[in-house]
Amino acid sequence: MARITFVESDGTEHQIEADDGYTVMEVARDNDVPGIEAECGGAGACATCHIYVDLAWTAVAGEAGPTERELLEMVEDRRAESRLSCQINIRSELDGLIVRLPEVQGF
Question: How far apart are CA 29 and CA 60, in angstroms?
């Protein structure tokens, strides 16, 4: 289990307890966190679950794979810490993870 803090673009925070085996996107969607559209349902095909992993957590969250990197090339406001939340699996090492939501999702 991990506690994740989602920070909306306006600074509003949502702290959520997340069970292992889910993705960051599923946790956001299932807890009605605004700003995660997840149009493809987590298939890694749309980039509407774009997030910014807090810099202190980028190494723990891991690097994006090749397909994820391709999708991230197309998103608005891409940064070095950009990830697709559907590609980050919850595990105990992510307890305390902070992710920020972009102002706009998609391409």
Answer: 22
- Residue 73: CA count within 13 A, CB half-sphere: 6
Q: Which residue has the tokens 């149009």?
A: 39
Task: Using alpha carbons, list the distances in angstroms from residue 9 to 6, 34, 66, 70, 90.
Answer: 10, 10, 27, 24, 22
Cα separation of 56 and 58, whole Å? Answer: 6
Q: pLDDT digits over 27-41, tens only?
A: 999 999 999 988 888
The token duo for 24 is 């960051």
- The pTM assigned to this predicted structure is 0.93
Q: Which of 14, 40, 36 is nearest to 83 (CA)?
A: 36
Q: pLDDT tens, 23-73?
A: 999 999 999 999 998 888 888 888 999 999 999 999 999 999 999 999 999
